[in-house]
């Protein structure tokens, strides 16, 4: 399984379960609940809280939180710069994401590993959106969705922290099984 093969599905981005700046329909936010979500101890707890309260506050995107302070700003910038891409039609979206990740058009293998990892991390957001849509439709519980999205965050963190490729592949394989199980049960 290639590094990018799991994350090639493209859908429209609207959610905010992992924090940061997102695109799509703005939601009314209860400020008290939004702040409370940011104080939760684990990634899964913060995600589940944001989903329960439809909380979208300006915060460090979950996948950026584990990085060093100097890398957090670049990570947030990558996420924020790519945000407008998710509202584009599929072909334009893919090119926009590639451009934001620094890979542009053409074969991915001719670009540096860092840029390919950035692109893969941006594509992982697409799967997150699919999960959020299923959760919002009632097809997944908050806990199921939070568990899957926390796994996505873990994969994105591994990609952005330059974890060994074998570690990333192991995380992706585990996520793929959990995703297919959860999504298959809701089909």
Please describe what this structure looks like:
By secondary structure, the protein is an all-alpha fold. It has one domain (5-186). 61% of the residues lie in helices and 0% in strands. The chain has helices spanning 31-38, 43-53, 62-65, 69-82, 90-101, 113-136, 142-160, 165-186.
Provide a brief overview of the structure.
Helices cover 61% and strands 0% of the residues. The chain has helices at residues 31-38, 43-53, 62-65, 69-82, 90-101, 113-136, 142-160, 165-186.
Give the topology, please.
Elements: H1 31-38, H2 43-53, H3 62-65, H4 69-82, H5 90-101, H6 113-136, H7 142-160, H8 165-186
Annotation keywords:
187 residues, mainly alpha, globular, disordered N terminus
Strand % is: under 5%
Unreliable stretches, pLDDT < 50, 5 or more residues?
1-15, 21-29
Number of domains: 1
Distance between the termini: 24 Å
Q: Any idea what the shape is?
A: globular
Sheet with most strands: none
How much is the average pLDDT?
Answer: 78
| Number of E-state strands | 0
User: Helix/strand/pairing class, anyone?
Assistant: mainly alpha
**Which value, in Å, is the CA radius of gyration?**
15 Å
Enumerate how many helices there are, as a single number: 8
Order of helices and strands: HHHHHHHH
How much helix is in the residues?
55-70%
């Amino acid at each position: 399984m290639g590094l990018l093969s799991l994350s090639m599905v493209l859908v429209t981005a609207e959610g905010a379960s992992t924090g940061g700046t997102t695109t799509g329909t703005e939601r009314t936010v209860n400020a008290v609940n939004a702040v409370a979500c940011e104080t939760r101890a684990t990634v899964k707890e913060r995600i589940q809280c944001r989903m329960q309260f439809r909380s979208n506050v300006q915060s460090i995107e979950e996948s950026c939180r584990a990085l060093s302070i100097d890398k957090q700003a670049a990570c947030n910038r990558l996420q924020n710069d790519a945000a407008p891409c998710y509202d584009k039609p599929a072909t334009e979206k893919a090119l926009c994401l590639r451009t934001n990740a620094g890979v542009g058009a053409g074969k991915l293998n001719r670009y540096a590993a860092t840029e390919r990892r950035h692109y893969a991390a941006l594509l992982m957001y697409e799967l997150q959106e699919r999960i959020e849509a299923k959760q919002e439709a009632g097809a997944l519980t908050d806990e199921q969705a939070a568990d899957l999205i926390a796994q996505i965050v873990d994969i994105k963190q591994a990609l952005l922290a330059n974890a060994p490729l074998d570690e990333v592949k192991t995380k992706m394989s585990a996520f793929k099984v959990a995703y297919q199980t959860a999504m298959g049960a809701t089909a």
